[in-house]
Design brief:
Blueprint (H helix, E strand, L loop, with lengths): L20 H4 L6 H10 L1 E6 L3 H14 L12 E3 L11 E4 L6 H5 L4 H10 L5 E11 L7 E4 L8 E2 L3 E7 L10 E3 L27 H5 L4 E3 L5 E5 L5 E3 L8 E10 L3 E2 L25 E3 L5
Antiparallel strand pairs: 1-10, 2-3, 3-4, 4-12, 4-14, 5-11, 6-13, 7-10, 7-12, 8-9, 8-11
């Protein structure tokens, strides 16, 4: 049993890799897609996974959700229910890429890597951390309105990106993502409790921001992803439907991001002193467009 963070390359054949520069072209975004991202703060409907890959990741999810997994100690965080309310269950974890081959290798998904680089301005991309968000049927909890970077100020400059991908179909009924278009231009707001009340962030907004708070639901079929800016306000409502809503998240930043703290950046990760570059075992370089 190994810590898969030691391997900075795919270790299975689940995600075939391009073999030439021309092979990468099929994964490139259009100019219109990139412009939409910069205007709205998000880009949705990107197909990341086929049926075989979805099944492999769902099987891996079932394995890593078990608190008795022999590599459980490798998680940076593990919350069987982050809300604390048994009627609003939100499974949330960080670090499963260290444990399961499928979650390790999805980081090297060619579509994900190319899109991430383009949305970060065609820059080299480093892995930041992964997350799982699972809402069971009938009593799945919400994720409060928030901005991702409000939890990440221990890393600077702000040149981060989030990719959310469903392993189940995500609909308004089972608690799909909700984005507030244009809110990535509001500046950094205070951070709420992630599984807290939905209106927590609203109390920290200006009257102008409240007037422009117009969420848009982002339903996605399983295997499809949405990418969003680190300041985009987003959240998701509870799942009272008869279908689960399982999803994984990949967070990245542009190469050159540095530590902004002398404390551990993630539980179990050795300290990277303040002002030093984020790199090494836990923050691998996953894509460099100059190497295509």
């Amino acid at each position: 049993m190994k810590d898969l963070a030691d391997f900075h390359y795919p270790i299975s054949d689940l995600f075939p890799q391009p073999k030439s520069a021309s092979d990468w072209d099929q994964y490139r975004l259009s100019k219109e897609q990139i412009e939409f991202f910069h205007e709205k703060g998000y880009l949705a409907g990107i197909k990341l996974l086929d049926d075989v890959q979805i099944e492999a990741l769902k099987n891996a999810l079932d394995e890593v959700m078990d608190p008795k997994h022999p590599l459980h100690h490798l998680f940076h965080e593990f919350h069987s229910n982050e809300s604390g309310d048994p009627n609003k269950v939100l499974f949330h974890s960080l670090g499963h890429w260290r444990i399961a081959e499928a979650f390790h290798d999805v980081i090297w998904n060619p579509t994900f890597r190319m899109v991430a680089s383009q949305l970060l301005g065609d820059r080299p991309v480093r892995f930041w951390h992964d997350q799982l968000f699972c809402k069971p049927a009938h009593h799945g909890g919400n994720v409060a309105w928030h901005q991702d970077y409000s939890y990440w100020t221990r890393t600077i400059e702000m040149q981060h990106l989030t990719c959310w991908c469903g392993l189940d179909d995500a609909t308004e009924d089972n608690g799909c993502l909700q984005y507030v278009p244009g809110s990535h231009r509001w500046g950094l707001l205070e951070k709420p409790a992630l599984a807290g009340e939905m209106d927590g962030l609203m109390q920290m907004m200006t009257e102008e921001q409240k007037a422009n708070f117009k969420p848009v639901a982002i339903p996605l079929k399983a295997g499809y992803a949405a990418f969003h800016h680190p300041l985009l306000v987003h959240g998701s409502f509870a799942n009272y439907s008869d279908r689960s809503r399982k999803a994984f998240v990949l967070n990245v930043f542009a190469d050159g991001t540095i530590s902004n703290t002398d404390e551990s950046l993630l539980e179990g990760v050795p300290v990277i002193p303040k002002g030093k570059k984020m790199e090494g075992k836990f923050f691998p370089l996953i894509f460099d467009p100059k190497e295509i």
